[in-house]
Specification:
Elements lengths: L24 H18 L7 E11 L2 E12 L3 E10 L1 H6 L3 E11 L2 E12 L4 E9 L2 E6 L19 H8 L3 E2 L7 E5 L4 E12 L2 E12 L3 H5 L3 E10 L3 E11 L2 E7 L1
Antiparallel strand pairs: 1-2, 1-14, 2-3, 3-4, 4-5, 5-6, 6-7, 8-13, 9-10, 10-11, 11-12, 12-13, 13-14
Length: 262
């Protein structure tokens, strides 16, 4: 993967990640429980808090490679979220890609302002922890990893979202009248990416959006040779209340990949 938790959308990177040690199922179950406990522990307690839980199968070339889970909780002014991306099945016996993240912040309607983002990752080749603290919308990075020359200066990235907030903004249900309105710019501490949806189409109870994943800065020359923009499609089921998110599909040089909601 090319960067952080949101790299689960960057399919030209190594989505399957480098071959590494086997991730045992019991370990994954423990991690899921620990992530959920930690996520709810850091979330506020409010009678008006609304909780959303999402669970996706991650498929590559039609084969299940992993799962993505996230929980979002918010009240009238604040929000908190936790997420976990991990391998399952046969993929877990050959490789590992584990991302465990949390974020807290404030919001005004659908406008989110993260205040603190924390990420723990394990790609099999390396383990890394990163934290982003936002001051007046400007990200401040806390990481033991030295910055590379092509990475962007965090001071220039005011107003960007963290990867977790960007994930739940894209992989979510949407209200009637807001189909394909999502347009987010995120910064993971090194790279800047824009993810936007457009061109709503409806056919019976099915609706789709065309999306574009754009690498805007902080990528190496080799990464940019792989491509700068990558199209994808999101499919929804139309209901009386909203458009129910069903799946995210993308085609890259490595083949087709998808996030399919359970």
């Amino acid at each position: 993967m090319t960067f952080g938790f949101v790299s689960c959308l960057d399919y030209t990177g190594n989505v399957q990640c480098a071959a590494g040690f086997q991730v045992q199922k019991v370990k994954i179950r423990n991690l899921i429980g620990a992530a959920s406990t930690a996520g709810f522990a850091m979330m506020f307690q409010s009678a008006q808090a609304e909780t959303t839980r999402m669970h996706f199968d991650v498929t590559i070339l039609g084969l299940k490679a992993g799962e993505l889970r996230y929980t979002l909780q918010k009240d009238d002014t604040s929000y908190a979220a936790s997420g976990l991306l991990y391998p399952t099945g046969l993929a877990a016996t050959m490789t590992t890609f584990l991302y465990d993240v949390t974020v807290t912040g404030s919001h005004k309607g659908d406008q989110y302002l993260p205040s603190r983002y924390s990420e723990k990752s394990d790609t099999g080749k390396r383990k890394e922890e990163r934290e982003i603290i936002y001051r007046s919308g400007v990200p401040n990075i806390r990481s033991a990893k030295l910055a590379k020359p092509h990475w962007l200066d965090p001071k220039t990235q005011k107003g960007t979202l963290d990867p977790m907030t960007a994930i739940f903004e894209i992989l979510r249900d949407v209200e009637h009248g807001n189909l394909c309105d999502q347009d987010v710019t995120l910064f993971d501490g090194a790279r800047r990416v824009r993810i936007s949806l457009s061109n709503p189409k409806e056919s019976g109870m099915r609706a789709t959006c065309d999306g574009v994943y754009s690498r805007e800065g902080g990528f190496s020359k080799n990464e940019l040779k792989q491509g700068k923009t990558f199209p994808f499609t999101i499919t929804y089921k139309k209901t009386d209340q909203n458009y129910y998110f069903q799946r995210f599909d993308v085609k890259s040089a490595r083949g087709r990949a998808a996030f399919v909601r359970r």
